[in-house]
Amino acid sequence: MRKIKLEPDCENCAAYCCVALAFDQSNMFAYDKKAAEPCKHLTKDHACNIHEQLTDKGFAGCVRYNCFGAGQRVTNELFAGKSWRDHPNEAQKMFDAYRVMHNVHEFLAMLEAARKLKLDSVQIKQVEVFQNELSPASAWTPATLAAFQSSGVFDEIRFFFRGLSDRA
Ligand code: SF4
Which of 19, 129, 139, 157 to pair with 87, CA 20 to 30 A apart? Predict the structure, then answer.
């Protein structure tokens, strides 16, 4: 299985988490934002103009958020370093790919953590099957990610984790 980086690398990312996702005004976010709308604190060069004061300014949700490395992967592997800012015609495709890639990376991180639990041989084999499905030898593309989202594998993984709750 190919080794995938599961930590964010924000300096090499087009700030997908600050654009692609919606958030609601709450104790986590200071205002309502729609999906595909850039956060009003995002600068032109993909930085955050309140990064050092996120919690004080009402954005604790940003501090807690983790893309598990999906952001820089979509930026560089799927779209060759291009930004949605400079390619508005491709922006929606980029945001859709990011949302699925986030699921892929979050589950890869959870499966990596599951390997540290006391699993039986069937469960260990199942973890490996899921890891291979989430890390295909051929590179992900927007089309293969979209097809994968409807394949039912994400639901199978969720079901598998429910069965592991007594091992955690
Ligand atoms: S999507 Fe991930 S890598 Fe990109 S800015 Fe957000 S947290 Fe950082």
Answer: 139
Which atom in ligand 1 lies closest to the alpha carbon of residue 66? 7
- Tens-digit pLDDT string for the chain (168 aa): 678 899 999 999 999 999 999 999 999 999 999 999 999 999 999 999 999 999 999 999 999 999 999 999 999 999 999 999 999 999 999 999 999 999 999 999 999 999 999 999 999 999 999 999 999 999 999 999 999 999 999 999 999 999 887 766
Distance 114 CA to ligand 1 centre (A): 24
